[in-house]
């Protein structure tokens, strides 16, 4: 009898399909959960710079450009105005104290000097005439008194003799009183003459004193005007180098106008401009250094100019151990200006990566040195050689510090050895 044959549920073919599907599912889940989907870029090792994170003493410095200037510069200003009649020296010449640099002419000043000189001579003549007149009046008084004394003597003699005669009634009282009145009149006349002469002499003495005072003042003014005339010769107040002279023959110059400067070459300093962002951290005595002729030379800030122009302010720096031999005025050099004391910190060498990342992330190599992965970091202060690392890197790790310009947005770099 026929027997019903049951169909098998798990055939080898079905098992093979199920197995294949399971393997594909497992692979898909593994790829989804564990596979590295980060974008990659192959780079050549010899075209990048790899630096090692280290820990050392760190001093924050900023680069500034210092310009060599004389330690002392003397402004050359015109004391008196006028037009340039003669120019004796040009800029760049060495001068000694008292050397004539320019000759000016000022006709108004010359006329004032001549007028004052004429007035002084007039006062001298008037003073001499007043003194002469006083002497003459004194002689006249002596002569007048002499004549009066003679007349008084005669009148007194008549008065005395007639006084006896009138007692004896040998002459009339009328005649006697005439002799007496003549005598009294001459005595009073003598007193009036003396009083008048004393008044005239006091007046003359007062006038002489006034003239002497006026003459003394005029003489002082004349001397000042003579000094002003001598100031038309512009002379070097100190020895040094006439660095600039900004006028030519025929130029009209006003009193007080700057016409140049003289540099004292007995010492030099450096003047630098600093970004106003650092103005609160700059103080006198702050240290800096620069390289010249293969040696490092130390500077300290000696003066701070508080005025800010175009976002920058200026400082003067002096050479701590004297100016280097061979340095010249106007020479510029990069200066490393320290903003604080040295402190221990984790350091990352500077490089071109910063222009792309702004210091927010870097590519860090793994232990094999074949792969570099993007990592977020935080940087702090900066010096010309290093950045201070605040977060994201450990000492000994290796970082690509060259430019990231050609790396795009790739998360991983694969280094080709």
From TrEMBL:
Pfam families: RND-MFP_C. Residues 201-228 form a coiled coil. One of its GO terms (cellular component) is efflux pump complex. GO terms for molecular function: efflux transmembrane transporter activity. The chain crosses the membrane at residues 15-35. Keywords: Coiled coil, Membrane, Transmembrane, Transmembrane helix. Residues 345-403 form the Multidrug resistance protein MdtA-like C-terminal permuted SH3 domain. Belongs to the membrane fusion protein (MFP) (TC 8.A.1) family. This is Efflux RND transporter periplasmic adaptor subunit.
